[in-house]
Design goal:
Elements lengths: L6 E5 L4 H12 L1 H4 L2 E8 L5 H16 L3 E6 L2 H7 L4 H20 L3 E3 L4 H14 L3 H4 L5 E3 L7 E3 L7 H10 L16 H16 L4 H30 E5 L2 E5 H5 L3 H15 L8 H13 L1 E5 L3 E5 L3 E5 L12 E3 L3 E5 L4 E8 L5 H6 L5 E5 L7 E4 L6 E2 L8 E2 H7 L12 E4 L2 E5 L3 E2 L12 E7 L8
């Protein structure tokens, strides 16, 4: 978990777990040549007691001459505003703070004080809620905290039982704070720890916590392998990604084995929102039905899934972007990139063609050939406008673009993201879907315009 010469940010609540964690890491400082920083997040859930915890954390950091970072938030208000449980809201805000803090001080590791007891409780909670194999793999000992892999979360105490930890803290005479709310069966985790686990230990298996932790350990090995496969498959189905939404190839995803389909779906949700609430069994079942039939459903964390036979989107309603204004001029030959549309367009003129039929066979969602004689400058690309009409190839007469989108069951969320190629104000191509038959190659066409486009991967510059 530790490498030489790095900065480690220690998540410090003031309780015995984090006190033990900080003490152990301090004793390893010389061996690993690591530097430590202390981060405390105040949830403002316990009034004066929360303020005392924050003061204690600062005092401990000061006594040990360690860098100290703190922050606070009204977690209860945030949970209500965002339709989250207090537990989920606290976790989201806390992890966001730890990640920001790690970047601000140059830390490459964030150390958390989770124990083997936390692992057992988590597995039981997820089992009750109906988690899938990934959820039952439990809390990972280490994982990346961001997509680029610059920061990792580590849990050095994940194999340590809380009783052993308390004995260590007492033997070392370490001072710590007691959170009395942990003894109140108000929250789900507290009920599991205070009521359900003692019942299971007393009536069914005295070693139930060890069995749960062992199950998580066994499943985590399989989960590591399947996770790597999932990332590869998610990369294949991903079409586009923006802030809080991802567009993916639903047709390709529907062909995957149901087990992989569920995992790829969960990964897409994480791409749309890096720290989403845990998906439960009924989410996977409902989503799987949509992959095969199309439709829309809500997801936890104020997200939704919408798809048809061709494409799907996982997004937050708040990510609905304002319509893209203006147009993007296109030359008859060259490479051009539009940042607003995130689209790279390549055009080339074929002054002489011998076989229009051969070129037509090469057409795809991202490549089209047009009869050059029908094309008129100026060419431009824009998104839909009210009243747009075109003549779809293979259909009789004209059709409103709005009706075309409805007939093709294109998710409403992405309709104002679909680029349109126009010639002298007339739609030539609803890019990725259909061309206008007035611009199609004919058996007697003598020249052609080739147009290719792609959506560059996030963060790439063409």
């Amino acid at each position: 978990m530790l490498s030489g010469g790095e900065m480690v940010l220690v998540a410090f609540s003031g309780g015995p777990d984090s006190v033990c964690l900080l003490d152990v890491l301090q004793k390893l400082q010389k061996k690993y040549s690591i530097r430590l920083g202390v981060a405390h997040f105040n949830h403002r859930l316990r009034g004066e007691a929360s303020e005392k915890d924050a003061e204690f954390a600062e005092q401990v950091a000061g006594r040990n001459k360690l860098m100290f970072i703190s922050s606070s938030a009204d977690v209860a208000a945030y949970a209500k505003e965002n339709k989250l449980t207090v537990e989920d809201a606290g976790r989201k805000l806390r992890y966001e703070f730890f990640f920001r803090s790690s970047l601000s001080i140059g830390a490459t590791k964030i150390a958390l004080g989770h124990t083997a007891d936390d692992q057992a409780e988590t597995i039981l909670m997820r089992l009750i809620r109906g988690a899938g194999p990934e959820g039952l793999a439990g809390i990972p000992p280490a994982r990346t905290a961001d997509e680029r892999g610059n920061v990792r979360i580590i849990r050095p105490l994940i194999y340590t039982w809380r009783n052993d930890l308390i004995q260590y803290v007492q033997k070392q005479k370490l001072e710590y704070r007691t959170d009395v709310s942990n003894e109140e069966p108000e929250y789900f985790r507290n009920k599991v720890r205070l009521e359900l686990l003692p019942l299971l230990m007393r009536e069914y298996n005295a070693q139930i916590k060890r069995r749960l932790a062992a199950t998580a350990s066994a499943l985590s090995i399989e989960n590591d392998f399947l996770s790597s496969e999932t990332r590869l498959l998610a990369g294949e189905v991903l079409l586009e990604r923006k802030r809080e939404w991802v567009l993916f190839d639903a047709k390709m995803l529907s062909r995957f084995h149901p087990a992989l389909r569920a995992r790829v779906f969960a990964h897409l949700v994480k791409l749309a929102r890096p720290a989403p609430p845990m998906l439960e069994a009924f989410h996977y079942a409902a989503a799987d039905a949509l992959f095969l039939a199309g439709g829309r459903m809500n997801l936890p964390g104020d997200m939704f899934l919408e798809l048809n036979e061709e494409v799907g989107v996982v997004a937050s309603p708040k990510a609905l972007s304002a319509p893209i204004k203006g147009s993007f001029p296109i030359r008859l030959s060259g490479r051009q990139y539009s940042k607003e549309l995130n689209i790279l367009v390549k055009t080339s003129v074929l002054p002489k063609i011998s076989s229009p039929a051969r070129l037509i066979r090469q057409c795809s969602r991202t490549r089209q050939y047009f009869d050059l004689k029908a094309v008129r400058a100026p060419l431009e690309i824009r998104v839909k406008k009210p009243g747009d009409i075109f003549w779809p190839l293979g259909m009789d007469g004209s059709k409103k673009l709005k009706d075309f989108f409805i007939d093709r069951k294109i998710p409403r969320f992405i309709r104002n993201q679909i680029p349109l190629l126009l010639s002298e104000g007339r739609i030539m191509w609803v890019m990725g879907y259909a061309i206008d038959k007035r611009f199609k190659l004919k058996p007697n066409s003598k020249s052609a315009l080739r147009v290719d486009y792609e959506k560059p991967a996030p963060g790439t510059v063409p």
